[in-house]
Automatic annotation (TrEMBL), chains A, B, C, D, E, F, G, H, I, J:
Source organism (scientific name): Desulforhabdus amnigena
Gene Ontology cellular component terms for the protein in this record: cytoplasm
Record bears the keyword NADP: yes
Protein name from the UniProt record: NADPH-dependent 7-cyano-7-deazaguanine reductase
Gene designation: queF
Active site as annotated: C51 (thioimide intermediate), D58 (proton donor)
Biological processes, Gene Ontology terms: tRNA queuosine(34) biosynthetic process
Lineage of producing organism: Bacteria, Pseudomonadati, Thermodesulfobacteriota, Syntrophobacteria, Syntrophobacterales
UniProt keyword list: Cytoplasm, NADP, Oxidoreductase, Queuosine biosynthesis
Amino acid sequence: MTTNYSGLTQLGAKAEIPSSPENAPLETFSNPHPNVDYTVRLTAPEFTTVCPLTGQPDFATLVVDYVPGDRLVESKSFKLFLNSFRNHGTFHEDCTVYVHNRLREALAPKYIRVVGLWFARGGIPIDVVVETGSLPPNCSPLPLGKSTYRGGRE
Amino acid sequence: MTTNYSGLTQLGAKAEIPSSPENAPLETFSNPHPNVDYTVRLTAPEFTTVCPLTGQPDFATLVVDYVPGDRLVESKSFKLFLNSFRNHGTFHEDCTVYVHNRLREALAPKYIRVVGLWFARGGIPIDVVVETGSLPPNCSPLPLGKSTYRGGRE
Amino acid sequence: MTTNYSGLTQLGAKAEIPSSPENAPLETFSNPHPNVDYTVRLTAPEFTTVCPLTGQPDFATLVVDYVPGDRLVESKSFKLFLNSFRNHGTFHEDCTVYVHNRLREALAPKYIRVVGLWFARGGIPIDVVVETGSLPPNCSPLPLGKSTYRGGRE
Amino acid sequence: MTTNYSGLTQLGAKAEIPSSPENAPLETFSNPHPNVDYTVRLTAPEFTTVCPLTGQPDFATLVVDYVPGDRLVESKSFKLFLNSFRNHGTFHEDCTVYVHNRLREALAPKYIRVVGLWFARGGIPIDVVVETGSLPPNCSPLPLGKSTYRGGRE
Amino acid sequence: MTTNYSGLTQLGAKAEIPSSPENAPLETFSNPHPNVDYTVRLTAPEFTTVCPLTGQPDFATLVVDYVPGDRLVESKSFKLFLNSFRNHGTFHEDCTVYVHNRLREALAPKYIRVVGLWFARGGIPIDVVVETGSLPPNCSPLPLGKSTYRGGRE
Amino acid sequence: MTTNYSGLTQLGAKAEIPSSPENAPLETFSNPHPNVDYTVRLTAPEFTTVCPLTGQPDFATLVVDYVPGDRLVESKSFKLFLNSFRNHGTFHEDCTVYVHNRLREALAPKYIRVVGLWFARGGIPIDVVVETGSLPPNCSPLPLGKSTYRGGRE
Amino acid sequence: MTTNYSGLTQLGAKAEIPSSPENAPLETFSNPHPNVDYTVRLTAPEFTTVCPLTGQPDFATLVVDYVPGDRLVESKSFKLFLNSFRNHGTFHEDCTVYVHNRLREALAPKYIRVVGLWFARGGIPIDVVVETGSLPPNCSPLPLGKSTYRGGRE
Amino acid sequence: MTTNYSGLTQLGAKAEIPSSPENAPLETFSNPHPNVDYTVRLTAPEFTTVCPLTGQPDFATLVVDYVPGDRLVESKSFKLFLNSFRNHGTFHEDCTVYVHNRLREALAPKYIRVVGLWFARGGIPIDVVVETGSLPPNCSPLPLGKSTYRGGRE
Amino acid sequence: MTTNYSGLTQLGAKAEIPSSPENAPLETFSNPHPNVDYTVRLTAPEFTTVCPLTGQPDFATLVVDYVPGDRLVESKSFKLFLNSFRNHGTFHEDCTVYVHNRLREALAPKYIRVVGLWFARGGIPIDVVVETGSLPPNCSPLPLGKSTYRGGRE
Amino acid sequence: MTTNYSGLTQLGAKAEIPSSPENAPLETFSNPHPNVDYTVRLTAPEFTTVCPLTGQPDFATLVVDYVPGDRLVESKSFKLFLNSFRNHGTFHEDCTVYVHNRLREALAPKYIRVVGLWFARGGIPIDVVVETGSLPPNCSPLPLGKSTYRGGRE
Ligand SMILES: [Ca+2]
Ligand SMILES: [Ca+2]
Ligand SMILES: [Ca+2]
Ligand SMILES: [Ca+2]
Ligand SMILES: [Ca+2]
Ligand SMILES: [Ca+2]
Ligand SMILES: [Ca+2]
Ligand SMILES: [Ca+2]
Ligand SMILES: [Ca+2]
Ligand SMILES: [Ca+2]
Ligand SMILES: [Ca+2]
Ligand SMILES: [Ca+2]
Ligand SMILES: [Ca+2]
Ligand SMILES: [Ca+2]
Ligand SMILES: [Ca+2]
Ligand SMILES: [Ca+2]
């Protein structure tokens, strides 16, 4: 169990929020088990952007499920990447697909799905789902919903 | 991540409620990711119309799921379009299908489903579901129900 | 969006409860979207009849799902039709199937299901489900259960 | 809607509890809609028997789902039939299958399922499920669980 | 409805807890309906054993579902069989499979599944599922979860 | 019911926490029922590690489901193995796959799935699912969720 | 801890259901801790009587809370006392008060409350509460919580 | 923070189950904070005894709340004390008061309440509540809430 | 709104886990609103210690409510203080009171309550509640509600 | 019903996010019912700040309950006031009290309570409750119930 995390510069260091998503690196490290097909979920309930036309803030929860290829995303790097949207103007659809594309590009995963659950604006919430690649055998994302199982005990 | 939203006139401007649904434009903008198949849900829990014969107000929640083609609907425009029904006489079935048809016409989506959940009148709620097109691979609407997942933690 | 509701006589008028279900008209109007396959649900939680032998009142919730052909049922007419059972003696099974048959006859729907959930009598509740026709592609009734979705937010 | 219930002797009359299940008639009446395939559920949460060896009372909830052929069971008759078990010695499995068989014999239904949920004895509850015939197209029992749907409104 | 329960010695008699599971008879009686395929569930939330190495008590809930062949298990006998584990050393996996095997041997059922939900030891609960035979048509175990249905009424 | 647990050294003895996962033995014992296909679930809600770069503690719930071959894992040994991660630096993905691999190596199970539900860091929880082998007939893991069934009684 | 239970004749013996409540003894035994004020709750969810006028069965859950004086009620005796109502005609109010009075007479408790939660007849459930004596300091009945309360088990 | 636990003989040692409750020591250790009034809850959902007349097992959950004086009960000692009831004949009321009295005697607490929630026998669960002493200011037991409470786990 | 946080050394710096609770500083900063009585809750669901006699790990959730005087506790400092218990031997009661005492000493709050909800050991969870000072008018802690409460997130 | 809202400058105008909380006006308007004591709740689930030392974002839900005196807060003004914290460094306690103080100053309410439910940092969520004034008779804030409460919509 020795993960090679050479090249990681953000974890454990004082982290500045990147100036924009385009300037935010998505640091990855070597998948220590490239021969095993498995599924990773990252959930980000603290995501916020601003509207590109009005400058008003938007809020969302992002749920990412992926089956890694040779790389894994480092979670602090992912957090800083998400923080870089804080003062960045973007529409919900574009933003969700962009997060998907950046992860796809950085990770070259076997499969990835990004779900953006955006808070209501004008009384209308918007949810966006982007999914590419195909699930290998023996890989399935957890259900979207509560799943804290504690062993047959309520 | 640069969405081309030239031509959008309503977002960020002071918005008048259109005089009727027929007069309400549904502004769209260019889908920045036309080569990606993904799903967008808009939910409108604040929708209201009037009965064409009695003038009494009706209330509904609309849930729209679509897989975009070349265009996306701008959400403030969609809100104003919905607001235009406020003093407009319409039956539940017609209205729900009309919303579906206007979106289909404006967006030419690969797939679209519109669900109208109408509050009870005379003690009888009415729900209408309209669905056209076919789902591309790797595209599926979220379930109709609660889904605020927060990462395996209750 | 112009529904032809010529011929509707009950909506907006002062409504008398019909003397019996047989005498109660089920007014319909022209489906403004006959080329679209969609689903309509009517739910009636305030339905009451009397037992044909004992004269005791019975209570039920009715749930109707149908895919319209050329006609839609007008909901006030449907309500008055249901009200006509108030002092009408009928058994649960017969009544539920009768409601189904009257709707089928009046609407010639592509598909229809009527569910009657009857309150307990003698400690024994009775539920009746009648379903005819077949579901067109892209048409499915909502689940029997809670479904007030409000956009990915709990 | 005229059900032929000639021959019904128990409904509306003062009812004596039959001396034993074998002596308890299961009165039926003519299915007014023999050409329609539909499902009827009867639920009996107030069912009680006695143990054939110890004479101690047992309690159960029975859930019956059937698709009628030419006959329907009259519910007061069914209640009295169930009441006849009150002082009758029987094991849980036998009793549940017997109720199933008597209904099958009296009704010749296209399909029937009887579920007996028996209260704990010696700390061990027993549940018995008997199911025969096959479901016609467009017929499905309601789920075993809560289902009081009220039209998209909680 | 006359079950042949000749040979039952434990029901209605003063019952001693057997000295060990091996010495505990599993009394059965003739299935009065051998030609009907049906499902029986026994649930035992009061099950306890001791650890074979440390002598410390363990606790579990057992859920048994089976489709009987020619024999049914008598429930008091089953309770006493379970009670015989009270001071008997056994591991969770072995015990759950043993209960399954003893029932299989005594009953020769068409299908049987035994689920053991064991309380945490060292903070780690263990659940064991053993399932053999195949389900006949029209036979399905109840779901593992709450199912007290009371007729569409909460 | 005689499990051969010769070779077990940890159960019932005073247990030291192993110095590292690599040094932690996973003691197994002979599956007393190698000819029966069955499923075992171990749930560990008290799992903790440290970050390899920052030294800060991490917390997770692990859920393991496996179909044993010739060996079973001894649960105290499994607990001590998990305890050995207490001061061990590891990333979430590596750790979850490592637990899977160690169990696979020690048990040679017919099927195994390990789920790691990790608490949020930087507001982002991570869940990892690793699954290998194929399920034999008549073997299925319990659902990830609550399942304390108590016999049809709420 | 040596309870004097001399005089108990029903516990452990084969018990016949008494012919009527009046003929049903309520056996008690000596309170081993007469100097301690404490509260005892007995819950009977399997209680049934018949209507004195129609002969039809009634069902209820009884909840008894008492602070013992010199005597405790033996629970099998209490069960048989309740079983004696099985074929006994009584109204809900009368029955609940009678159970209270018999317990008061047999136990001379410092405080007693009997709650009868009766199933609906004609769609109307009836609940009866009888309470006499006064609570000593440091004694309080558990909350009634769910009225289908089953004794500390969810 | 240095607790004086001299005199503790059971914790960390191989523990034999005591032969009877009377022979089971309740080891205590010095309250390191005798000048602070605080509340301690111990919950024991795995408690079992046998009936003194029939020899049949009984099960209960015990909930103990106390405000310590100069002594605290050592929890392994308390567990072994409870385990000593495993083959010990006792009635529910006596047993619950006895546990209370032993704790009171061993601890001389400022306040103590013992709640015994006993599983149904003959369909009738029994709950016993014993409470002595008075609560100091700023001390209140946690609510009983879910009675199958498992220590901060849902 | 200018908080004086001079003297804070841990927040924003790379933090080492202190070698023991006694060596762990609890950094505080000046309460910017000393004239307002208000309540602060800190919830720590990731708390772990080791048993002083056996060396085995223990887990708890801590819930702290206090009304500040002149000082507030800095939350990273509080986290590191809690982390310092990770390899520290302590009993549940002592530990919970010690956390209370350290906070009282560092903060001199007007009121403070510390609740420790400890995971089961030997099947017995322990909960400790320590409360000192008195609540000023207009100050009341939030309800404990779900004890796995995670700070306003479900 | 004529509300005097002279002086409102933000509602209906294009709104810029104020440069800091200190520079953000809290616009109010005349309470049209100053002689009625009533309660107003504003819930803000989309609140975010940054840490004054690390620059990292924080998230909270704010719940404000007040009984108005002569003034009411205009809700768009309140939203812009909250938005002004977006890039503003502040600690949780200071920020929550500051929001309370600004509202108290602007409104001079008879009573006000501000609750800040802050997302976990370092695994530790913080909740702050500030309450001043006294509740008039017949005024009580709604229960906090679900703290992610969304305004009467489930
Ligand atoms: Ca795989
Ligand atoms: Ca909104
Ligand atoms: Ca796709
Ligand atoms: Ca209505
Ligand atoms: Ca269609
Ligand atoms: Ca049909
Ligand atoms: Ca029982
Ligand atoms: Ca069958
Ligand atoms: Ca444990
Ligand atoms: Ca198998
Ligand atoms: Ca007392
Ligand atoms: Ca009734
Ligand atoms: Ca105190
Ligand atoms: Ca105050
Ligand atoms: Ca008032
Ligand atoms: Ca966190």
